[in-house]
Design a protein that fits this description.
single chain, mainly beta, seven-stranded antiparallel beta sheet
Length: 101
């Protein structure tokens, strides 16, 4: 699932809603992340419902990936993430080196 992931890629993690903590926050369970995680949620999700959390990869180790996003900042196993969009560096319009006459 998570093969071919590199730094800068946009990935998604499927989390399961555990319970509502506050009116605007829910506790979620993230695969291969052994701690409960709380996210801001204004929609009315139910217990046990699966939700997709999007983020950007900032670090890749042998079997671990660190994902930073709007709702999360976690290090999970590489099998827990799905690639959404590959990072494409911007194209240069001017060369880095000045032209010599």
């Amino acid at each position: 699932m998570g093969k071919g992931i590199s730094i800068g890629d946009t990935v998604s993690i499927t989390a399961t809603v555990r319970r509502r903590v506050l009116e605007d926050r829910v506790s979620v369970s993230i695969p291969s992340y052994n701690f409960p995680h709380s996210i801001r949620d204004t929609t009315k999700v139910k217990r046990g419902q699966k939700i997709e959390l999007l983020g950007e990869v900032t670090r890749v180790d042998d079997e671990k990936v660190t994902v930073i996003g709007e709702h999360l900042g976690v290090t999970v196993g590489i099998e827990a993430v799905k690639l959404v969009e590959k990072y494409r560096p911007p194209k240069r319009k001017k060369p880095l080196v000045d032209e010599v006459d």
